[in-house]
Amino acid sequence: MSTRTRGKADAGEALGIQSIEVGLKLLRPMIESGAPMNLKALAAAAGYAPPKAHRYLVSLIRMKLVAQDPITGRYGLGELAFELGLAAIGLLDQEGLGRQAIHEIRAETRHTSCLVVWANGGATVAAVEPGIGSIFLGIRVGSILSLLRSASGRAFLTYMPLETTEHMLKAELAEMPLERSAIAAITEDVRREGVSRIRDTMMVGLSAVSAPVFDHDGRLAYVLTTLGQSEVFDTSPDGEIVRIMQGKAKELSARLGFRARMAG
Questions:
Q1: What is the pLDDT of residues 11-53, one digit of tens each?
Q2: The CATH number fitting domain 3-90, selected from 1.10.10.10, 1.10.3660.10, 1.20.58.760, 3.10.150.10
Q3: What number is the average pLDDT over the span 198-208?
Q4: How far apart are CA 186 and CA 30, in angstroms?
Q5: Of the candidates 66, 55, 56, which has an alpha carbon nearest to the alpha carbon of residue 30?
Q6: Are 111 and 103 in contact (CB under 8 A)?
Q7: Where do the H-state alpha helices sit in the chain?
Q8: Up-side HSE of residue 196: CA atoms within 13 Å toward CB?
Q9: CATH node for 93-255
Q10: Rounded to the nearest 5°, which phi and psi values hold at 43?
């Protein structure tokens, strides 16, 4: 192959096959809508004229990436699309993605960041990224955190089934009596804000923000947490740390296949 011919081939590979890109663009509106769509709405969402959209849909149906309801005529994801999705989820290294996320959070906030999972009957620290220039905060891999006093624990208390957290909650309430109305207020705040925030409740001088990450079934996969000294750690609901944690958890949940507006 001549240099000129090879150059053309390389350019073609870089450009890709436009017809495939055009056709697959129709899948995104179906994913985001969460429900079958009629041709007019689907075409508009993709930015195509209905006749153009229909031509590509015919091919996508043949490939089983799209299915058409024989009664309503609406279009939704097909058998192959679901198989691809399940295969992708099966190949995901969920904990690896979580570890990468706390590494990124540490880099952005400069504070200690943790990956917290539900294990050993409680909210357990699975990985720690020490803050840049931070003092030792007493958080180690294997530490089990309080459901009521820690930001991570409050996230689990909010989104885990009651039967899962009840035993640990009863043990904590025996040492620190708290009205059920106060517990309900805590979980309502977490649901409303999408994060759990504490200041000096787990340890004097320690503040933290935790964000829940959900899997493709809408279940709590784990919690991302960042923490630091209260005097230099901003826990305000509209602050940069909360914004970073909300964004990182949303991004990671999407990678794990979570599509609903909010779990629980």
A1: 444 555 677 888 788 888 888 777 889 999 999 998 999 999 9
A2: 1.10.10.10
A3: 90
A4: 36
A5: 66
A6: no
A7: 3-15, 18-24, 27-33, 39-46, 50-62, 79-91, 94-109, 151-159, 162-175, 180-193, 240-255
A8: 28
A9: 3.30.450.40
A10: -65, -45
